[in-house]
Every structure is written in structure tokens, then in C-alpha cells.
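Chain X:
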Amino acid sequence: MLVNVSEGIEKLVVRFPGGMQEVNSYLVKGENGYTVIDTGIYSEEAIATWEALFDTGVEVKKVVLTHTHQDHIGLARWFQEKKGVPVYTSKLGYKEMLKHRDKKRIKENLADLLHMHGGPNLPGRIGNDSFIYEFEPDGFFDETDTILLGNQCFEVVWTPGHAPDHYCFYQKDRKLMLIGDHILNKISPVIGLWTGEEFNPLNDYFASVERMQHYPTALALPGHGENIHRLSERVQTLIQGHERRLNEVESIVKAETLTAAEVCEKIYGSLKFSHFVSPFMATLTRLIYLESMDKIHRFYDNEKVYFSINQS
């Protein structure tokens, strides 16, 4: 079940229905057992995968989370309560956990965000997964800390953008980084507003990606997909992709005044709600970024936000 990816580090692909359908969990070997990096979503399939691994005699001594999205934190409470394994998250991650415990507020915020930007109504039935956040971490880490994973020391690197509380773990001597969802090999991580609150995460993401030049990396181990062996090249490809999309969004708004949902449809076509949210979020955060650069501006009409080219 485990695939060796580097000295003392194994990968377990945890599969589940919905979303990304799988996540890479990494097990860093220690003297008495492994440290697990990210757990997979809360699901019967993911639990069965971990139970099968435990049945082989593998011992887990600690869980550490790169960020608190559902597919990474989903089984942290299960590890803590069912397996007696301590769970560590960032201090910022704990604040995000507290937000997600108020599922009603998040649902209301998302509904308002969708309505304001011309999107469809939020479906009446949305699963309440707030229970996965209802536990107290056993310890915390913060930016510039050194953290012990297994028996290896890693530098904690804050990389907001994909999530406000996203952190990577870096080893300078091995030029190795556990990179979570900050950079992925084949796809661009979605930059969204998952709690329904508006801010400028794409600006944060660009700053975080720029910081990667300070961490020369020969091997990056991402939260989804294959290992990254040429991180600097992958970073440049991602930036170029964002620049193309930003130019496309700006051109669309230059031609006509539209809501974020309308811009999204022009780029991605008409989508069912289950496939709409991620493209919509990517579009909206690009519009917010362009607005922050004074390239476009918004105005309100009949309780909706429209974006138009900045003529000045």
C-alpha cells in the first residue's frame, strides 16, 4: 500500500468519492512509528484504507496537517479519537477550524456570495461536515518554526493562497519539500473563497509562489498527483497559466459589463452546480485581483455586482 518516495518517506494514496477523489498522505518514518501528513476526506472508503494499513502493523505516532480543507483534515478527528494519535495543526489552521464549526454561517455567506455575483442558488441540501472540525489539536506550529516529522526536522513555510492557512515543510539539505496543495504537477490549485468571505487570495498566492525561489527544491511531494522534480519550471508554468486567464478575464470584461458568474460561463461554458463552484471561484478571485490592480472596477445594480473595464 505504501510507495517509497524518498529516504524515510512513504506515500499512501487515499481514495474517496467526490471532490478530487484522492489525496496523497505521506508517512515520515520515526524510531517508534510514522508521522502522517494529511489524512484524506472523512468517508468509509478512506477509513477502510487506513484500517487496512494498520492491519499490516504500521504504527502512526502523530498527524500533521498542511491545511484544513476537508480532504486534508477529514480524518484527523478520527485519528485522534479512534486511534489515540495526537494531531498538530498551524495556529492559523485552528482559526479556520473554528470558522468551519459554524456551518450555518458559512452556508449563509456562500449563498450571499453566489447571489451577489450572479450565481445560482445554493442547493437546499448540502452535507454538514462541520463535525470533522470539532476537536482540539494536541499541538500547534507557526511560520519559521522547525517541526519534527518522524525523526526528520523540517522548516515550516507559510504559503497562503489556495488556503489562508496553507503550510509547506522544507528540508534544505535534501532540497525536499512537502508542498501540500500549494503547487500541483498537472493542474492549477483552485484559488477560492470557500468560507464565503471576500478577500484577495490570488494576490496572496502569487506572493507565496514567488517565495518558492528562496527554497531550492529537487523533489516536491504534493497533496494530489505525481511528484514534482522540476519545481521552478512548474512554478513558471503555473504563473503563465494564471497570466493567460487574467488576460482572458480582462478581455471579456472589456467587451461587456458582466457578473462573475457570466464571465465564468463565457470561459467554461454552462455547468451543473456540482461542477460550477470551482470554476466560479477561480473566476471571481481573478476578477478581485484585477480590481485590486485597478484594471477593472465593480458597481452594484439590483443587489448584484457587475464588473467593467477601468477606463481611466
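Chain Y:
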Amino acid sequence: MEEGRKNRPCAIVAARQIIAGRMVVTVLPVTHTPPRDSADAVEIPLAVKAHLGLDEARSWVLVSETNEFLWPGPDLRPVPGQTPPRFHYGVLPPGFFNHLRERLLRAHEQRRLTGVPRTE
């Protein structure tokens, strides 16, 4: 299992309940680093970033890398500056979520998708 190198927002793209209120979530990491290949990421529009309360710097959702972990679990970090603490930035607008989903499916079809296991 691997521990993340740094705390970062992620887009939850799937969730399934497994045991009494616990879920396994599949997330796509968000980064400020431009992708080497545009097929690997989707840029987050500024309006979506504002809606979620993210900074104004350019950011991308990586569609070529998934992470799965138990929710709630040790991989969660509170959103910075929130009182009381919360662990989500909000809901992605449906159009942007559907675009991410399509790009994720395309990465899977092209065998460009990698999974990163996380600790319990």
C-alpha cells in the first residue's frame, strides 16, 4: 500500500458501500502541474474552481490515475481553513463531472489508466 506524497483535493468519481456505512471511493487527483500529455488530464475551469472554493491557479484533474480507499479513512484530510472541519469541497457541476467521466472511460479503453493502492 502507498501513502500519498502530499495532501491534495481529489474528484470522487465512484463510491460503493461495502460494510455498515463504510464505502470504497474511487478518486482522481487534482494537481497544479500541467500534464505532459493532454490525454492524461482535464483542466478545471475557473468557474468550477470558484464554485468549489479552490484557488485561482490553473489546475487539472488527472484522468489517467485513480486512487481507491475506505471512506471515512486515514487518507482523508480536512479542507484547509474550514471551521468546523469538513472533508469535501462540494459537488462538481454535472456537465464537468460527465466530461471527467468520459475522459476517464477513454483512458481506461486506451489502457492509460493506473491505480494507486492506499492504506486502510
